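Protein modeling request. Please complete all fields; requests missing the sequence field cannot be processed.
Requester role: graduate student
Desired output: 3D structure, token encoding
Chains: 1
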Amino acid sequence: MLTLVTFFPVLGAIILLSLKAIKKESDLLVKQLAVGFSAVTFVLSLGLLFQFDKSLGGLQLVDKADWIPSWNISYYLGIDGLSILMVLLTTFISMLAILSSWSAIKEQVKQYYVFMLLLEAGMLGVFLAQDLFLFYIFWEFTLIPMYFLIGIWGGQERIYASIKFFLYTMAGSLLMLLAILYMGITNETFSLPALIAGRSAFADVQNWLFVGFAIAFAIKVPIFPFHSWLPDAHTQAPTAGSIILAGVLLKMGTYGFLRFNLPLFPEASVHYAPTIAVLAIIGIIYGAIVSFPQKDVKKLVAYSSISHLGFVMLGIFSLTEAGLQGAILQGVNHGLSTGALFFLVGVIYEQRHTRMMSDFGGLWKAMPIFAVLSLIVTLSSMGLPGLNGFVGEFTILLGSMGSHALGDHAWIYTAFATTGVILAAVYLLWMYQNVFMGPLDKEENKKLRDMNGRELTIMLAFLLFIFWIGIAPAAYFALMDSTVAKMVADIVSAGALAMP
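Delivered output (500 residues):
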């Protein structure tokens, strides 16, 4: 089942490639096939949810086969409470991103949708791979479709942004590759469960190995000061590229810390927890402060991602059950809220071909439905109670407040992090006021149409989960309870963390 979900988008890409040379009248067929394959992938991932037993803390629905026996490398996929929500988020966001491209992409349509489907398959592989060699292949593979999506269909400085994105993430990953090779050779296996069980073999160098993995994941998140590629990539990417970048690709970094750093290097995780928590808090405050003076709406949303993902990192390195659960859920929340914000920016950009706040004002009068939906998503991104962002941020702050890993003064970390919530309200409401409030005094804005049926469908899909998680998050926490409890107990049993 996991293999089917992972490679079904690849089947779609192969079928699109096999279509004869595209003429304009057959662009419609390409779009329909791409949307169809992404929708079926989402339905298949819901099938995983129905088969998933939330009472089990370990891997489920495992697909395993020998791949390169001489190197003890296997094809090994598995799912647990850390990855189930990430898989569902990936298939959901990918489906909406592909649908959002319907009218935006007019050149090289077939190639665009092939890259989108391949990117989806790569991301799913990252979240499901349980063999480090297989994981690394999926991890690096995701760079290729994203590189072309930004470089071909992006904005005016797309080549610069795509090369910067590729080089940053590729360079960081090489240190992780060295760490993977060291562990694989030391333990004569690349299987993640086997490496966790035999982690004593590399315990004396685990601080170095931790850093190797951490730099690769820190660049992907991105944690301050590894963030400088993000605003360029976001701003230059096509709308769907930004949605997937914010919605899923950045979560690969936070997922990597959860999946590899914490269980493989428990003592190093505790050792470095205060340092990473400080970097996370700097990111929270820095991202918010830099968002405020932005004149380009898309750049503002891009910098806000640095701030929001700082909360996720603080939750992970609180090393508490509440913190870890909040971090996983906030990853999903950020994907929904920021993905929706990028989609809304794309809707307005398609009509006006500008993202400068100074070119707008008074849009509430011209586009009332668009304005109301934008307000809900803006409040969600701020963390308003009753919407998804509040649940994740509250749980993270709860976890960090009682964190043993952060020492006796954990409350100081929490206090500084809380300022990020206030700052988020400042820059997001400032953005909303500039774009939607005031007089409708520009002629170009008076002619704008409100949202059409396709755009409304996409937004309502986002809003369904924004409200659901905000009002009734228990079902989401239940999916990860057992796995997170097992992970925290494992870190305690390793003697790395003293907890009651």
